[in-house]
# Entry
Amino acid sequence: MIIAIDIGNTNIVFGCIEGENILFYERLSTDHSKTGLEYALMLRSILDLHGIGLEKVEGAIVASVVPPLTAVMEEALNKTVSCRIYTVGPGLKTGLQILLDNPAQVGADLIVGAVAGIRDYTCPLILIDMGTATTICVIDGEKRYTGGMILPGLMASLDSLILKTSQLPRISLDPPKRLIGKNTVECMKSGILHGSASMLDGMIDRIEDEIKEKATCVATGGLAGVIVPLCRHEIILDDELLLRGLNYLYRKNA
# Structure
């Protein structure tokens, strides 16, 4: 059994995997102020909550896009379990061919998602990760990471809209009853939700035009479940993509 941790700007996803089976995963708020000991206590509590003894853990792997928290989480793991800990980054074998100007600039989460996508889906592939930022990665028919896009995330856009206006309120993200809103809240919900869905549909169209073939589309991330049902393209919703990618990378390197 291994512990897999994906550290994002807004959330930390923590999961336990046995073989190919994801036993559970939990989503925590990313908190820069917490110490390694505090995260260790949180990890211990989650394992206890799911009835998993520390003696069952054989290893751990971490992917992080928050450099200050990477070492903190490694410290937390060292305080919690006695096993080999891998961190996604230079020196870790991925088997991924990256056709970018500077492959070292690719975020750990994008690498992990690409590794899982190539293994689990038919290429060419469009991978969408909807978190603090919305990232789109393109994998060609030869399973090479060819590039992608980075856009403002849904919540970042909504927070900016509220911050920069005097009269727009905070809203929930449940879908509006109709596209054309009849009041301020409905108009905001339609704009942010249907607007985000239209953006994804439009980006998929443009990517497929450029690569000149249809692609498998897969979406993950905390907000993907809200937007994907509103899209007109067929997009596979895969909440466990990054955890499976971390598992593949651990097994490849262990």
